[in-house]
């Protein structure tokens, strides 16, 4: 069959690969100049490896991308233990206030005295920031901002989530309600509240408990990366697609899809179909070739649901498309900093758990991947999820840097200088997993026969990631014989 795959990220590439292996005639459409989607990388002249525009890693519990790599004969994936930590604002009230740890708590006296002494030594500081590792049960027991009973209670709930199968009760309550009821209000405020607010903004208390279950159950100490960067894997996949004679069309934005009888038409410019006869006659043959409406038996859309809805208004019932308007998203803004000195000491992934630092996460990439691959310089990501109208979207990279750099210097224990910096925006990067989402999210099959959807909204309840993109691509390809 003639199959069009819309979107050249990992979902689209995976689907195209397995469909071509079955002998289908596959065309893969991508509006950017290169394949790869959110995993695409770039490289400076003095770098040996590519770097992703947005932070990427694999979990050692993820099999789909490893199996895909094995099928393609790609072996350059490695795993490494990393440290995840959280940043907290510390003052006397936070430590000795109502519901917090007291100095009589076993094993905490030394750490608490050290923190309090630092506050007292610097009279100019109203607060200080401290980074605490939170990777293991031992880390939780050593965490000074909760009492021992609170830590035991929190640990029991986390263990339950880790080993629990998916339960329907998770979809019947929000994560905030679940964590408050099971761990207590103070634990919610200390461990979770800022994580949810930084990730989901005003929707923080509407996110379903399925989200926290999925995050805990898939949590891994070892993270994976690709030698040379994810772009090397993308290049390898592209070569395999070429060998299978998949027609890859990059820098090609599909504007609309139409259906006549049993055939679909992928159209680059809608005027070619909907324009007047006189307009059509004005087009010479070269122009017609550029906007050709190619026929297909099957369409697979891996595009964001918002984009897919716009280009399929001619084929889908309005009631079907209307339900997607209830889905909500946040956009990702990512800054990449290149520095001679590291920003974080040992931590790879830092969750910022204070509202006074307007940053969601800092990821010290070169605490995960050797700095020698980037000209001997350190690389750090700084990330946010924000609303479409947030000023960060339109601010220049320099403006964003000037906005948050003073906060980053307060967080870091090192004096660092930013030599190069980059800003990237990822539209519709974070779906809001609320009750409306589970009622309206897309599924593989649609009301129109032979039109399939496989996009990252369908990773629910798991957070988006390359492994799930590959999983979706393989699953949708299995629906087509």
Automatic annotation (TrEMBL):
**Gene3D superfamilies xrefs:** FAD/NAD(P)-binding domain (3.50.50.60), protoporphyrinogen ix oxidase, domain 3 (1.10.3110.10), Protoporphyrinogen oxidase, mitochondrial, domain 2 (3.90.660.20)
Q: Which InterPro entries match?
A: Amino_oxidase, FAD/NAD-bd_sf, Zeta_carotene_desat/Oxidored
Q: Which GO terms describe its molecular function?
A: oxidoreductase activity
Q: Which domain of life is it from?
A: Bacteria
Query: What's one Pfam family the UniProt record gives for this protein?
Result: Amino_oxidase
Limits of the Amine oxidase domain: 10-475
UniProt xrefs under PANTHER family: AMINE OXIDASE (PTHR42923:SF46), PROTOPORPHYRINOGEN OXIDASE (PTHR42923)
- Name of the featured protein: Amine oxidase domain-containing protein
Organism of origin = Candidatus Roizmanbacteria bacterium RIFCSPHIGHO2_01_FULL_39_12c
């Amino acid at each position: 069959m003639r199959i069009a795959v819309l979107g050249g990220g990992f979902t689209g590439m995976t689907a195209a690969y397995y469909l071509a292996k079955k002998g289908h005639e596959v065309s893969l459409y991508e509006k950017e100049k290169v394949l790869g989607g959110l995993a695409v990388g770039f490289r400076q002249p003095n770098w040996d490896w590519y770097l992703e525009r947005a932070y990427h890693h694999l979990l050692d519990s993820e099999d789909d991308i490893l199996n895909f790599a094995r099928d393609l004969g790609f072996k350059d994936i490695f795993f490494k233990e990393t440290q995840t930590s959280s940043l907290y604002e510390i003052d006397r009230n936070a430590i000795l206030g109502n519901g917090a740890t007291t100095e009589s708590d076993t094993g905490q006296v030394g750490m608490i005295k050290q923190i309090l002494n630092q506050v007292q030594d610097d009279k100019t500081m109203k607060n200080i920031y401290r980074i605490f590792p939170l990777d293991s049960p031992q880390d939780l027991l050593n965490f000074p901002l909760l009492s021992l009973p609170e830590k035991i209670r929190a640990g029991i709930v986390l263990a339950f989530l880790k080993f629990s199968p998916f339960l329907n009760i998770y979809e019947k309550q929000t994560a905030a309600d679940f964590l408050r009821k099971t761990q207590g209000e103070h634990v919610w405020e200390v461990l979770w509240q800022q994580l949810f607010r930084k990730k989901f903004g005003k929707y923080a208390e509407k996110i379903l408990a399925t989200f926290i279950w999925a995050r805990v159950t898939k949590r891994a100490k070892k993270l994976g990366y690709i030698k040379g960067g994810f772009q090397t894997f993308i290049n390898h996949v592209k070569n395999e697609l070429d060998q299978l004679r998949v027609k890859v069309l990059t820098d090609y934005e599909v504007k609309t899809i139409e259906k006549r009888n049993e055939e679909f038409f992928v159209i680059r410019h809608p005027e070619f179909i909907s324009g007047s006869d006189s307009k059509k006659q004005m087009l010479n043959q070269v122009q017609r070739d550029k906007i050709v409406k190619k026929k297909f038996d099957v369409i697979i859309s891996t595009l964001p649901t918002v984009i897919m809805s716009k280009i399929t208004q001619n084929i889908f019932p309005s009631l079907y498309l209307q339900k997607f308007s209830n889905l909500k998203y946040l956009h990702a803004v990512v800054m990449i900093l290149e520095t001679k000195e590291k920003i974080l000491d040992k931590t790879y992934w830092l969750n910022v758990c204070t509202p006074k630092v307007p940053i969601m996460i800092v990821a010290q990439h070169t605490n995960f991947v050797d700095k020698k691959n980037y000209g001997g310089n350190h690389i750090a990501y700084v990330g946010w999820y924000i609303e479409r109208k947030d000023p960060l979207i339109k601010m220049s990279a320099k403006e964003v840097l000037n906005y948050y750099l003073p906060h980053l210097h307060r967080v870091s224990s090192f004096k660092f200088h930013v030599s190069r910096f980059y800003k990237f925006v990822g539209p519709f990067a974070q779906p809001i997993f609320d009750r409306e989402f589970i009622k309206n999210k897309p599924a593989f099959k649609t009301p129109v026969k032979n039109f399939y959807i496989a996009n990252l909204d369908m990773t629910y309840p798991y957070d988006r990631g390359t492994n799930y993109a590959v999983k979706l691509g393989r699953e949708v390809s299995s629906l087509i014989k």
